[in-house]
Amino acid sequence: MVFQWIGIATTTYLAIKLVYYLAQGAYLYFFRTYPDFNKYGKWSVITGATDGIGKETAFQLASRGQNIALISRNTERLKNVAKEIESKHNVQTKCLTIDFSDDEEIYDKIADFLQGLDIGTLVNNVGTDQEIARFLEQSNLSLIIRNLVRLNIMSILKMTQIVLPGMVEQKRGLILNLSAFPILHPIGKYAIMNATKSFVDLFSRALSYEYESEGITIQVYFISSKFLA
Ligand SMILES: *[C@@H]1O[C@H](CO)[C@@H](O)[C@H](O)[C@H]1NC(C)=O
Ligand SMILES: *[C@@H]1O[C@H](CO)[C@@H](O)[C@H](O)[C@H]1NC(C)=O
Ligand SMILES: *[C@@H]1O[C@H](CO)[C@@H](O)[C@H](O)[C@H]1NC(C)=O
């Protein structure tokens, strides 16, 4: 008898929980409101903008009326994506070919390229996950260290350094850090990469704390079809 009641109670609890999750999912899917990007400024800057999530984000922002500054490695693809954006949405685009694994001088070029634009949104999308072995077993550890630091850490710090002063001056700005996976716990073979992600996470939260009161919003998006829908 007692076990029967425990069984019924447990089943009821799980059923309620299931309904709750389904309702929450439906709510997020249908009602989630996106930031009003135009309220922050006319231009969005997207790093790593020609493939996958970065490209999809560029289209989403353009569909909401944002002009798009695309920074990426491949000139040909940049041109194609920019053309596609302009033909689909009635916005302006600007492209700059940059390899974020090159040394720090690239940021002078980026600063020149962005000079004078009314930038409301920065999307930090560039990054790499090329690490594939235990620390000492990488085929070229120096290269892996250099690339991971440049692509996953330096890019975010330097892009923020370039774009934030204008945002602070305007008292508005949105910095999005896109991420596919929430960090739960480290797994083998990705020590450096997983650690760079924690860096970005902590940096984003700390920066948000420092600049929230000046109208700057820094958000972390775990990309799912919800953001892109
Ligand atoms: C490893 O990468 C460095 C660049 O950090 C490069 O100079 C070197 O030639 C590479 N070594 C090998 C064996 O590929
Ligand atoms: C570490 O990186 C790998 C490769 O991208 C990823 O699959 C894994 O989820 C990461 N782990 C954490 C804890 O972030
Ligand atoms: C953005 O921050 C989240 C955690 O808040 C982190 O998981 C993610 O890796 C960060 N994005 C990048 C591109 O590093």
TrEMBL record:
Pfam families xref list: adh_short
Transmembrane segments: 6-30
CDD domains on file: 17beta-HSD1_like_SDR_c
Record organism: Clavelina lepadiformis
Protein name: Uncharacterized protein
PANTHER family registered for this protein in UniProt: RH59310P
Family: Belongs to the short-chain dehydrogenases/reductases (SDR) family.
Keyword annotations from UniProtKB, A to Z: Lipid biosynthesis, Lipid metabolism, Membrane, Oxidoreductase, Steroid biosynthesis, Transmembrane, Transmembrane helix
InterPro entries attached to this UniProt entry: NAD(P)-bd_dom_sf, SDR_fam, VLCFA-Steroid_DH
